[in-house]
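Figure 3 (text version): C-alpha cells given as input.
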C-alpha cells in the first residue's frame, strides 16, 4: 500500500485572490494534461465483499454523489466502479485522488487490493480527512483500460457520498492535494490566528483608552470570528451534534451582528432600534435552533440564521456606501469595496452551502474577512495614533500656556489690566469664530436635508424610501444638535414665540419615554413615568423641550439607579418633577447650574456630555412660558427639578385631520444663494414639488435672467457674496420689479444682533438647516394668501 494523505474540513474555504496565496495556489494547482478527471461511475449498494460482475444491477452515477439526494434511505456497504481508459506512460508513480468522501474506502485496481483510507467500520473522515490520495502500484496497472473499484460503508442515518476522482502522476496529484490543503486548512488557520491576534491588539488599545466602545466591539468580533473559524478546522468537532451545529451558527450570527453594528457606528450612523433587534435575534438564536433540532428541521433553521446574518451585513454595507459617498476619501472607498466583496462572498457561501453540488463546498469569506479586519484595524490604529499625537500636541500647548501664565503672575499689577483686556479680546474673537463656523457648518447640512427630501420624494420602492427616511432621521438628529447651540441666541433675540394652549402631560410623557428609554437601558437605568391625566397651560413644543432636556440630563448624570417623572397638584397649579438618583449638586452650585457653559464639577461626570447649555435653555424657556423652575439636590443622593405651571380645566384640542398636500405646481420661485450645493439641493427639492425654479448666485444674475418675469416668491440666503445681505437683495429686487414679492430669508446666523435685524425687516425667516416640510408649508401658505 502506497503513501496516503488525508485532507478534510467541516466548513471548507476558498482563498481570496490575494497576491501570495494566488501565486502559491496557481503554482500548485496548474492542471496537468496527463491527469484524468472521472466525473461518472457505476454504483451498486450490496454487502458483497468482492465487486459483483457486470451482470449485477449496476447503476450509472454522476459525481459528486450525495447519498441523501441520490440514494434516499440507502445505507450500509456499496461499490463504486471507475473506468480508466488510459494510464500515463513513463516511469513516474500513478496516484488515485478522491477529492471528497464521507466514508472510508477500500480500493481495488483490476481486482487487486492496493490500499484503503481507513477501517470501513471505523470513524468516518472528518474535515481535512475528507480528501484521500492513494498511490497505485505500476505492477497492477495495464497498458490499456483499467478498472478501479472502491468499496465504502455508510452507517444508517449518516450522510454518505463521494466527489470526483482524479487519476494521474503522483507528483501532479500531490500538488493538487497540497493546493486543497492550503485552501481548506492552512489558509483559514492563518486567517483565524491573525484575526485573534488583531482582536487582542485592539483590546489592549481599548484597555489603554476606554473612551470608545467601538474598539471593544471590533476587538470582540475579531476574536470571536477567529476562534469560530479555528473551531471549524479542528480534526473533530469539540462538542457532539447537534450542539456543534447549533452553537456554530449562533456564534456566526453573533459576530456578524457585532461587525455590522461596528460598521454602522464607524460610518457615523446610530440606529439603536435596529442594533437592539439584531442583538436580541443573536441572543435568541441558540434556543430557536435547539427547538428546530427537536422538530427535525435544524438544516433549514441554520440556513435561515446565516441568511439573517447576510441581511444584516448588507444593511451595514448600505451605511458604508453612504459614508463613502459623504466623505469621498480613499480609505472609505477601500473599506466599501472590501465590505461589498465580503457581503457578496457571504451570499456565495450561503448559496454554495444550500444549493451547491460539492459535498464540501469551497467558501470564500475567511480570506476576504482577513483583509477586511486588517484594513479596519489599520484605520482604527491610524486614528488612534493620530488622536495620540493630537493629545501630545495639546499637552505641549497646555504646558506652554501654563508656563506662560506662571510668568504672567510674576509681572506687576499694571500688566494684569492689559492681560484682562487681551483675554476679553480673545473671547470676542472666539465668539465671532464660533458664529462663523456654525454658519459654514450649517450650509452643507442645509443642502443635505434638501437633497435627502428630494431623493425621498422621487423614490418609488419601499426599500429605498425606508433608507431615505433613515437619512432624514439622521439629518434631523444633527439639526437638533445645532439647535441646542443656537437656542440661547434665538431666545435672547426674541425669535422664539410661545403659543400657550391646553397640553395633556401624558402624551408628552409617552413621547419622551419612547425616545429616551433606549439611552436609559444602555446604562442599565430604570426610567419610569407616573401616569397622569393632568392638563396644563403651556406651549406643547417648548414644554416637551424642557422636559426632554431634564430627563436626558438625569440619564446622563446618573451612574446607577434611575429617574422618575411625575406630576402633582399644588395650590391650583401643577408641578412636574424630574427625579434621579445621580451624583447630585452641591448647595453652592445649585444657583449656578442654569448659567451658560456651567457644569457641575464631579468625578462621576463624563467630560464629553455637552457644553453646559441644556439647563440655560431650560431656564430661558421657563421664563418665556411663565413657568417657575426650582432644584433640590444633595451630593451623592440625586437631584429633583420642579416645574410649576398653570393648571387647565379645558381639554387639549383633538388632533385635526391630516393636512392635504399643498399644490405647488407651476409656482415660480427664484433662489439666490452663493453656495452651489445649496442651490442645487433646493432646486431639486422645489422641482420635485412641481415649482418652476431659477437658481442664481447673486442679485445681478437673478435680475439678468428674470428681469421681464418677476417670480411668485424669492428665497434667498441671508449672507451673500461681497457682504450683501438677503435683506438688501430683497429690497433691491422688489424695487427693480416694482412689486412687493414675498421673500423668505434662510438664515444661518446665531448672533442676537443679526437675528434682530431679520426680525425687524418684516421678511419671513427660516433657520438653517431648514426642514423641507416647513419650507413647503410656508410656500403653500404664501401661494394661498398672496
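Below: residues designed for each position.
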Amino acid at each position: 500500500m502506497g503513501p496516503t494523505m488525508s485532507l478534510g474540513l467541516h466548513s471548507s474555504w476558498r482563498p481570496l485572490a490575494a497576491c501570495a496565496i494566488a501565486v502559491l495556489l496557481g503554482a500548485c494547482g496548474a492542471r496537468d494534461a496527463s491527469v484524468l478527471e472521472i466525473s461518472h461511475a457505476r454504483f451498486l449498494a450490496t454487502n458483497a465483499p468482492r465487486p459483483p460482475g457486470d451482470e449485477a444491477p449496476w447503476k450509472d452515477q454522476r459525481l459528486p454523489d450525495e447519498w441523501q439526494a441520490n440514494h434516499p434511505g440507502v445505507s450500509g456497504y456499496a461499490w463504486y466502479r471507475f473506468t480508466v481508459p488510459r494510464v500515463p506512460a513513463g516511469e513516474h508513480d500513478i496516484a488515485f485522488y478522491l477529492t471528497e468522501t464521507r466514508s472510508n474506502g477500500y480500493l481495488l485496481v483490476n481486482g487487486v487490493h492496493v490500499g484503503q483510507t481507513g477501517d470501513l467500520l471505523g470513524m468516518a473522515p472528518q474535515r481535512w480527512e475528507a480528501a484521500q490520495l492513494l498511490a497505485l502500484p505500476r505492477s497492477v496497472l495495464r497498458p490499456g483500460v483499467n478498472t478501479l473499484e472502491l468499496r465504502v460503508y455508510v452507517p444508517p442515518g449518516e450522510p454518505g457520498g463521494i466527489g470526483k476522482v482524479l487519476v494521474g502522476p503522483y507528483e501532479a496529484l500531490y500538488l493538487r492535494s497540497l493546493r486543497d490543503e492550503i485552501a481548506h486548512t492552512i489558509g483559514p488557520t492563518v486567517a483565524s490566528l491573525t484575526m485573534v491576534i488583531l482582536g487582542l491588539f485592539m483590546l489592549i488599545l481599548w484597555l489603554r483608552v476606554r473612551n470608545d466602545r467601538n474598539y471593544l466591539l471590533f476587538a470582540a468580533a475579531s476574536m470571536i470570528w477567529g476562534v469560530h473559524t479555528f473551531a471549524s478546522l479542528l480534526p473533530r468537532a469539540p462538542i457532539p451534534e447537534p450542539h456543534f451545529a447549533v452553537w456554530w451558527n449562533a456564534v456566526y450570527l453573533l459576530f456578524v451582528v457585532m461587525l455590522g453594528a461596528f460598521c454602522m457606528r464607524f460610518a457615523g450612523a446610530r440606529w439603536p432600534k435596529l442594533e437592539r433587534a439584531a442583538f436580541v435575534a443573536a441572543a435568541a438564536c441558540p434556543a430557536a435552533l435547539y427547538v428546530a433540532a427537536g422538530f427535525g428541521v435544524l438544516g433549514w433553521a441554520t440556513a435561515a440564521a446565516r441568511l439573517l446574518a447576510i441581511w444584516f451585513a448588507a444593511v451595514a454595507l448600505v451605511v458604508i456606501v453612504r459614508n463613502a459617498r459623504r466623505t469621498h476619501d480613499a480609505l472609505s472607498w477601500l473599506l466599501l469595496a472590501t465590505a461589498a466583496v465580503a457581503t457578496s462572498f457571504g451570499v456565495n457561501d450561503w448559496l454554495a452551502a444550500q444549493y451547491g453540488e460539492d459535498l464540501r463546498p469551497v467558501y470564500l469569506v475567511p480570506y476576504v474577512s482577513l483583509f477586511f479586519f486588517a484594513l479596519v484595524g489599520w484605520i482604527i490604529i491610524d486614528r488612534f495614533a493620530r488622536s495620540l499625537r493630537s493629545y501630545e500636541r495639546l499637552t505641549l500647548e497646555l504646558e506652554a500656556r501654563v508656563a506662560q501664565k506662571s510668568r504672567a503672575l510674576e509681572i506687576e499689577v499694571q500688566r494684569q489690566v492689559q492681560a484682562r483686556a487681551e483675554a476679553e479680546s480673545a473671547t470676542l474673537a472666539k465668539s465671532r469664530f464660533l458664529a462663523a463656523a456654525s454658519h459654514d457648518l450649517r450650509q452643507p447640512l442645509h443642502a443635505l436635508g434638501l437633497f435627502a427630501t428630494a431623493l425621498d420624494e422621487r423614490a418609488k420602492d419601499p426599500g429605498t424610501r425606508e433608507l431615505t427616511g433613515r437619512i432624514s432621521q439622521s439629518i434631523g438628529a444633527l439639526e437638533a444638535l445645532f439647535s441646542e447651540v443656537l437656542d440661547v441666541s434665538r431666545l435672547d433675540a426674541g425669535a422664539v414665540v410661545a403659543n400657550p394652549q391646553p397640553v395633556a402631560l401624558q402624551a408628552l410623557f409617552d413621547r419622551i419615554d419612547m425616545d429616551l428609554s433606549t439611552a436609559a437601558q444602555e446604562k442599565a437605568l430604570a426610567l419610569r413615568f407616573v401616569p397622569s391625566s393632568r392638563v396644563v397651560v403651556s406651549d406643547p413644543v417648548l414644554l416637551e423641550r424642557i422636559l426632554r432636556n431634564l430627563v436626558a440630563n438625569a440619564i446622563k448624570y446618573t451612574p446607577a439607579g434611575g429617574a422618575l417623572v411625575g406630576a402633582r397638584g399644588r395650590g391650583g397649579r401643577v408641578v412636574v418633577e424630574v427625579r434621579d438618583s445621580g451624583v447630585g449638586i452641591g448647595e453652592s452650585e445649585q444657583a449656578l447650574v442654569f448659567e451658560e457653559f456651567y457644569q457641575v464639577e464631579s468625578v462621576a461626570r463624563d467630560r464629553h456630555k455637552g457644553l453646559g447649555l441644556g439647563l440655560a435653555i431650560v431656564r430661558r424657556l421657563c421664563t418665556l412660558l411663565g413657568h417657575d423652575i426650582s432644584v433640590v439636590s444633595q451630593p451623592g443622593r440625586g437631584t429633583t427639578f420642579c416645574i410649576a405651571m398653570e393648571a387647565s380645566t379645558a381639554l387639549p384640542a383633538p388632533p385635526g385631520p391630516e393636512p392635504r398636500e399643498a399644490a405647488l405646481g407651476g409656482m415660480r420661485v427664484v433662489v439666490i444663494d452663493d453656495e452651489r450645493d445649496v442651490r442645487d439641493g433646493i432646486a431639486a427639492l422645489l422641482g420635485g414639488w412641481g415649482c418652476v425654479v431659477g437658481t442664481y448666485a447673486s442679485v445681478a444674475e437673478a435680475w439678468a435672467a428674470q428681469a421681464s418675469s418677476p417670480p411668485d416668491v424669492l428665497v434667498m440666503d441671508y449672507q451673500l457674496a461681497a457682504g450683501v445681505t438677503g435683506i438688501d437683495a430683497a429690497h433691491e429686487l422688489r424695487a427693480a420689479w416694482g412689486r412687493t414679492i414675498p421673500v423668505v430669508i434662510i438664515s444661518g446666523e446665531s448672533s442676537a444682533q443679526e437675528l434682530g435685524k431679520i426680525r425687524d425687516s418684516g421678511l419671513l425667516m427660516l433657520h438653517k438647516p431648514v426642514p423641507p416640510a416647513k419650507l413647503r408649508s410656508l410656500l403653500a401658505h404664501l401661494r394661498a394668501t398672496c
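The chain is about 50% helix and 15% strand.
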